[in-house]
Amino acid sequence: MQKERLRQYLAQSPVLQALYFAKPQLNGFLVMESLKAKRAKQMLPQFLALIRQFEQSPAKALAATLRSWLEPSVRMWRFTKSNGITEGFHTKMEMLSRRAYGFRNFENYRMRVLAQCGWNGVINRV
């Protein structure tokens, strides 16, 4: 019953219907983790066609965002490296600073960061 209502609703607005079916395709492109160079070259025209489809619709702002992030998106497909670890450590350090409202000296802050981020006994590594 819900599918039938959805079909009727989308039939009234062709633009909304096109966007509704383009969203999963866009999501599929953005969750791809790693592709070989040949496969990435095959996917790029499809991705650009999807961006052009969004440019012709009320989702122009989304198309502009996707176009501005095109190079990093393609780079993400090609290379699997991430700065997630760095971002995680940065978040931990920010949380430490907020909780402490500033340490009296840098050495106290440094020792707390080492303790939070997994110090393995060698102080000069960090």
What overall geometry do the principal axes of the alpha carbons give?
elongated
User: Helical residue percent?
Assistant: over 70%
Unreliable stretches covering 5 or more consecutive residues: none
Q: What's the total count of β strands?
A: 0
Q: Distance N terminus to C terminus? A: 60 Å
Number of helices: 7
Kindly estimate the percentage of residues that lie in beta strands according to DSSP.
under 5%
Main sheet: strands, sense, barrel = none
- Rg from Cα: 23 Å
The average pLDDT value, as a whole number, equals 78
Which structural class should the secondary elements be placed in?
mainly alpha
Which sequence of SSEs, written as H and E, runs from N to C?
HHHHHHH
What would the keywords be for this entry?
74% helix, 7 helices, mainly alpha, 126 residues
Give the helices and strands, then pairings.
Elements: H1 2-12, H2 14-30, H3 37-55, H4 60-68, H5 70-78, H6 84-100, H7 106-116
Helix pairs in contact: 2-3, 3-4, 6-7
Task: Describe the structure in your own words.
The chain is mainly α and 126 residues long. Helices cover 74% and strands 0% of the residues. The protein has helices at 2-12, 14-30, 37-55, 60-68, 70-78, 84-100, 106-116. Helix 2 packs antiparallel against helix 3 (37-55) and helix 6 crosses helix 7 (106-116). The longest helix has 19 residues, at 37-55. The protein is elongated and about 65 Å long. The mean pLDDT is 78.
